[in-house]
Each structure stands twice: as C-alpha cells, then as structure tokens.
Amino acid sequence: MTLCTTCQLPSLTQFASPELVGPIVYEGHDRADDPAWRTSGAVTLADYARWCSHLCGMACLRMALGPDAPSLFELRDGALKYGGYTEDTEGTIRGLIYAPFAAYVRDVHGVDATVHRHLALDEIPALLDAGRTVMVSVHFEIRRPERPAPGRGGHLVLITGRTADGGLHFHNSSGIDARTRTAELSRSQFEPFFAGRGVSLGRPGGAPTTR
C-alpha cells in the first residue's frame, strides 16, 4: 500500500529543459545552450548558466509550494536576500544554507519550515504522516541507485510520501528521465546516498508546527 498525501505536487527540474538534464550532467553539454532558459525566470542567459546547477533547493521549494509557486529565479532572489546563498570574493556560490533559507520560507511564503541538522531516516515517516514534505541532502548519483553510492550529500531532493514497507517517494530536480524525477526507492536503496540532514516543510497556508 502507498501512503502519500502529496504525490500531486509538480515534478520540476532545476534546468529549464528537462530533456537536457542528462546531457548537462553527464556529457558536458553547455548550460548556456538551453533554449528554454527564459522559463526559469532568469533575467540573463549568463545568470541562468551560472546558477542553474546550484538550484536544486529552489526547485524543491518550488515543487513544495505547488502549481502557483514563483519562478525558480524569483525564489533564488528571495533566498539570496535572506542569506540562503552566499558568494565569496572569488564569485563562488555557497549554499543552500538551511537556517536563513527556512526563515525566508516562513517569512515570505507563509510555510512552516523546520531545519533538521541531524535527521535519521526513521524520523522521516512521522514528518510525512504529519502532512509535511522533506527536503533532504543526498548524493546526486541517487538518480542511478543501481550503482554504488559514491558519497553522501551535496544535492537536495524532495521526499513527498512513503510506502507501508518503508520505501520513500521523492522528486529529484536533476533526474535524467521521468522515472528518476519522480522516484521511489526502498529504505536500503536510499540510505547510502543520504547525508542525515534536511528541512521539512508544512503545507502552504497551513498552521505552523512547534519547532
């Protein structure tokens, strides 16, 4: 039996053209050669190309907010103002930084956001059963779970539901096809990629929970 109250959330990619995700992440396709870049909300192609590979967290938020969510780069701009991302003197982009991101989500979007600096897989089902979605840090190679996990963390996916036997439904904004963008993995498949941290999100417009 599948237990999922949020599976109707949109499945979105952090790159403007879903069909280019695979070529970009595995074949060196130029991110600036994305004909749909304007749909991201970026003002310039250069800004899109520089930032799109860093916006898995904004894609997760956009999915969690539902079909009326702002554009990817509007969310980026809001998170930047709160310090959810930083840029050093060399221009290196750092983030997503969870605490200021959560403050941004609560203040601007009215959605309860709780930072989980230490999150066990066993804690996620209760969050889902409470009607929350959960952004978690995983290795980006979770899109190819049949291979050994090369590490943990560095990429964010949105967990939307669970199965009765402990499997997890999640949306992956850097999935390379429909199966890996809206995915389901068993606990044992998911765990080797999981970094043990994340941010849980309440329903848009819902009452806040105690943190």
TrEMBL record:
Superkingdom of the organism of origin: Bacteria
Name listed for the protein in its UniProt record: Peptidase
Organism whose genome encodes this protein: Streptomyces flavofungini
Organism ancestry: Bacteria, Bacillati, Actinomycetota, Actinomycetes, Kitasatosporales
